[in-house]
Amino acid sequence: MRASLFLCAIFGACSGPPPPAPAAVINATPSSVCYGDDFRTSIHLDSRGTSPDLTLIYTKPDPDAGVPTTTWTFLGNTCQDRTSDPTCDIAIDPGSVEPSGAIDFDTVTFTMRGDKPVQVSLRVQNAAGGVTETATTISITPLDDAGVCPLPQ
Amino acid sequence: MKRALAIATVFATVGLGRDARATAGTAFSETSRSASLADAVSARPGDAGTILSNPAGLGDLKEAMVLFGSHADYVAQWFRPVGDNASQDRRRGFGGFSFAAATPLPGPAWARNIGAGFALDLPAQYLLHIDVPTRIDQPTSPIYDGRPDRIAAVFALGFRIFPRIEIGAGFALSPSLSLPTNVKYVAGRSPNVNDDPGKSPTGDNVEVRIDSSLDLSAAPFFGLRAQPFDWLAVSLVYRDTQASRATGTQTTVAGGIVASDPIDFFEMWDPATVVVGACAWPTRNVSVSLDVTWRKWSDFRTAFDQVLIPPYQLNDTVSIASGIEARRGPWAVRGGIGFEPSPIPAQTGDTNYLGGNTLVLALGGGIDLRRHKWSLPVVIDAHVRARIDAAESARKNPSALSDADSTLPGTQIDNMGFPGFRSQALMIQAGLTATFFLGGGK
C-alpha cells in the first residue's frame, strides 16, 4: 500500500468523494523461508480477514454489504508446474488458480525457489466499488554459519 | 577563422552536458530554446525563459516579453530483480505548461539597465504530487519520479552594473504541505461503528479533523554574467536547494488506544547547484555555449526525511553540457549534447534508488518573425530531446540489509532488490515555445 497525497487547490475539487474503501488483510504462514528452499515449504496466504468496510475497530461485516472480490498478484516468474518451467520462481498450487488463470480465491497456496523474497499483492474491491490494495513480502532467511536453516522446522 | 578554431578547440577539449533546468524550477520544463541547447544557456544573453538559468541575463532585456511554453514527455524505465524474466514496468507520461514574463524597468537610462522577471511552471497533471512509498526499499528514481510533479514559480531581478557585467538575484517558490490530522473514535457514541447511510458521511462516532495548508518556501538564486569581449561571455550561477515537505501529526484515538505518528515526508526537486558557463560567437550567426554544473546531491534525504549515511549517501556530481545555435535570416537551428553522471551510489543496502549515467541529446529550431517578411514581434521555437540512461546494476550485501522480522531466528531479508537488480531509463520530450515581444520587437 502506498500513501499518496494529492492536492488540487487551484482548479477546485478534482472529483466527488470516493466510494467507501474495504479493508484488505493478508495473513501469510510462514512469513519467511530459508535461502535455497527450492519449493519445499508450502506457504499459505489467507485474505479472510478482509472486510467490505474499513473500520477502526473490527466489527462483523454487514451481511447485505456483499462479498468483496479479491485478486492476488505475485512479482516474479510464476507457474503452476515448475517441472515444465525451469525459470519458475513461484509455483502456485493449481487448486488456487481459476481455469481462466486468475488468482482470486480467499486463500492461496504456493511454494518458492527461495533465492529472493517474493512480494505478494492483494487487491480488494467491495460492492460499492471501493478498492484497497495491500502487499506483503515472504522474506528469505540466510542459512547460519553451520549452513543450517535457523527457522523452526 | 583563427578565433573560430580556438573556440572550437576549447569547447571540444572541455566536453559537453548539464542537467535539466526549468523555466521556473519544475524539472524538464525549460523553454524550447534552452532545451535544444542542452540547457547550456547560463552565459548566453538572457530572456524571459532563462530567469532561473541565470537571472543576470535580465539585464540584457531591451523590451518587455512574455512567453508560453508546453512540453510532452515519456519516460520508459524498467526494474528487474536478478533472475526474473519480466521487468517491472515503471513507464510514465507527463507534460506541463510554462509562462514567463520579463521587462526592463521604465524610466531613466539607469533604470532601463534593470530587468524584472517572473516565471511559472504548471504540470499538466498535478499542482503538487508527493507519492511516498511505505517501504524504504521500494525502487525509486530521484531523477524522474517526482520532480516533474509540482507547480513552481520564480521572481528575479537582473542589473547591468557595467556595460559588460550583469548581476541578478531571485527566489524560487516551492510548495510544502502541512496536514495535521486527528481521527477520534468515541466509544459508545453510536451503536454502529460504521457509516450510517443517510446520516453523517463519516459515521456518528468517528471525528475526523483535518487542518491542511499549502505553504510556500523560497529558495534563493544568484547569477553573474560578464562579456569581456564581443565574442565571449562567461557566467557564474548559484541556486539553493529546492525541496517540498509534507508535515504534521496524525493522531488516531480509539478508546484507550492513542496512536500518534508524525508525518514527515520529503521530496527534493533540485539540490544546491553551482554553474560555470561560457558562450562564444565564432561568427556573427553562430554561437557555442558550455555549462559545467556542480550539484550537491549529498543533501538528498529519503522520502521519510531521513539522512542517508555513507556509503549510501548520494554523490555530488559535475555534469557538462554544450549547445550550438546557427542563424540564417529568421531561421535558427540548435543542437545540444550533455553528460550527467549518476548521483546514485552502489545500491548494496536497504535502498533501491534508480539512475545511471545519462547522455542528453537535443535538437531544435525556431523562426523569428521579427525578421520574417511578416514582421511580427513573435518568435516560435520547438525542440525534441532524449535522455538516455546507462543501465544500472546492483548486487546486495546481505549483511548490510535490515532484519525484516526480529521475532524470528536469523535475519529475514525482504528487500525488493535482493539479491540484485538491473534498471534503465529513457526519456523522450517534445516541446514548443512562443515568445511575444510587447515593445514591437526591437
Provide a descriptive summary of the structure in words.
The complex is a heterodimer of chains A (153) and B (442). Chain A is 0% helix and 34% strand. Chain A has strands at 3-7, 27-29, 32-34, 43-46, 69-75, 78-79, 90-92, 107-112, 118-125, 131-141. Chain A starts with a strand and ends in a 12-residue tail after the last strand. In chain A, β9 and β10 form a beta hairpin. Chain A is elongated. Chain B has 442 residues and is mainly beta. Chain B has helices at residues 2-14, 32-36, and strands spanning 65-81, 88-89, 92-104, 114-123, 128-132, 152-162, 165-178, 181-185, 206-210, 213-229, 232-239, 242-254, 257-270, 273-283, 286-295, 317-328, 331-340, 358-368, 378-389, 392-395, 420-437. The radius of gyration of chain B is 25 Å and the shape is globular. The model of chain B is unreliable at 1-21 and 191-203 (pLDDT under 50). The chains are: A mainly beta (153), B mainly beta (442). The A-B interface holds A 1-10, 17, 20, 31-32, 34, 53, 55-57, 59, 62, 75-77, 87, 89, 115-117, 119, 137-142, 144, 149-152 and B 81-86, 88, 126-134, 138, 175, 177, 179, 183, 185, 192-195, 201, 206, 214, 246, 252, 254-255, 265, 398, 404-405, 408-416, 418-419.
